[in-house]
Amino acid sequence: MSTATSCAGSKSRLEGMKREEQQLSQQLRRVLRLRTSSGAGGTHDWRMNGDSGVPPTADALASVLQANARLHQQNLALRRQWEDVQRFEHALRAACVRERGGNVHASCEAVDHRALIVDSERSGGVSASDGGCWVALLEGEAPFYYVPFEEHECRSLADSNTRHVCALQSEAVADCTIGVAAAAAGDAPAPAPERAGSSRAVREPVTVRFFQWRAHLALEWDDALQRRMIRYKFCKEFRLPMRTMEQVAGRMWELLHSPALFQSIYRVPVHLRILQRWREDLSVALWSTPSPDRSVRGRAATVFSRSAFTNPQGEACAVVTLTGVRLKEPPPGSVGSGSGVASGVTRAGERVEVANQGNIYTLVKRSTAEPGAIEMEYGGRIEVLSEAMAQFLMVEIGSTLVRIENLVLPMRVLGC
User: Smallest Cα–Cα separation from 381: which of 325, 326, 327, 322?
Assistant: First the structure.
């Protein structure tokens, strides 16, 4: 009897909450209609008109919603204007080059790659012969000679990594289809085929749940590189995210280009320096890799890029990739001959070790199954310089991802 009474009471409370929610929703719509019909009326209008059903707090909320909508439209308009300016600038450069009878792409890149060396003046200036300059990752270190890349070289690497991420999405669909067919037939699914190459597992792959992330990690040995490699992938769905797919990708891009934000995702010292940058979707960076002994002797040269595509399921995807790249050696007899990044030493006197293989990606996709939901995938295959570093990174990767999640996807806070 008491159980039935309790259930009836809970049901009545739920119905009361539902009625209250409907009343508040109707009240908000009424406020919006009033503001639309009366123009930019202030919060004092509701008393003067004798309309006691429109409190100042609801009126203020309507003002905020309208202001946000206006700002959103202004941002879209500014973005379109910026894209128009970029297209006009490129067309103008191409027209100038054609008038001179030159090569459009080569000439444009020759202008860009010299102009986009970051802090080249502070680092000793740009060499007239090869466009290179002296740069140092940290203050107090002996600089190394950096020979810049052409834009098409970096775009080729970035596009290759993006195609690899697209292929992973296709493989996921194929694996799912095979698994469903095998289950329907009552058979165990066949093991995944080995990837082409000369990698072999050092330890058994690990599949776990980590703060609601579906995680898969594997430690491999690459015979060609003679190095250990960590392969990993984390997936998580966000049903009511505070940010859209495009905003998450934009925030991730901002994180990769801010030394302070980049440091905040690691619990050991990690330093970042952007060396070259083209527009807002491609750049070259040098950074110190996280190390269990807090050393900065490990360095990684990386091409950052971002793009968008549609996966085999028809879902819109935004992807930010990090692709390892081998820095160019200064040509023999040049100003910086024999002074590449690998020849340097740290402030502590340690020999610099350079990792230039591997790739990392952050993929955000808009769910077609549930409106408003997005899914985030964080994965890659990275080079590790020692056994101690491998053990450290097998744990640190997950911790880093949690910090990234807090930065790019803030928690939803419910108001009273």
Answer: 322
Chain centroid, CA 291 distance in Å: 22
pLDDT tens readout for residues 324-341: 999 988 877 766 666 666
Give residue 402's pLDDT: 92
Alpha-carbon span 128 to 97, nearest angstrom: 21
* Chain mean pLDDT for the chain: 75
Question: What's the Cα-to-Cα distance from 355 to each of 228, 288, 331, rounded to whole Å?
Answer: 11, 10, 21
Total count of domains within the chain:
2
When pLDDT is cut at 50, 70 and 90, the band that residue 381 belongs to is very high
Please check whether residue 114 is in contact with residue 131, taking contact to mean a CB–CB distance below 8 angstroms.
yes
Range of weakest confidence among 165-174, 270-279, 370-379:
165-174
Asked whether residue 381 falls in the same domain as residue 272, the answer is yes
Whole-prediction pTM: 0.65
| CA dihedral sign, ordered 403, 404, 408, 412 | negative
CA distance 231 to 346: 29
Determine phi and psi for 301, rounding to 5 degrees.
-100, 130
337 Cβ contact list (under 8 Å, min separation 6): 145, 330, 331
- Specify whether the CB–CB gap between 211 and 217 falls below 8 A: no
Q: 67 and 210, same structural domain? A: no
Give the CATH number of the domain where residue 242 resides.
Answer: 3.30.530.20
DSSP string, 206-244: EEEEETTEEEEEEEEEETTTTEEEEEEEEEEEESS-SS-
**From the CB of residue 330, how many other CB atoms can be counted at a distance below 10 Å?**
21
**Which structural domain, as residue segments, surrounds residue 327?**
149-408
Contacts of 357 (CB under 8 A, 6+ apart): 222, 225, 227, 229, 324, 383
How many Cβ atoms from other residues are within 10 Å of residue 264's Cβ? 15
For 69, residues 6+ apart whose C-beta sits below 8 A from its C-beta are none
> Which residue, 161, 223, 220, is CA-closest to 394?
220
Interval 211-230: pLDDT, tens = 889 999 888 888 887 788 99
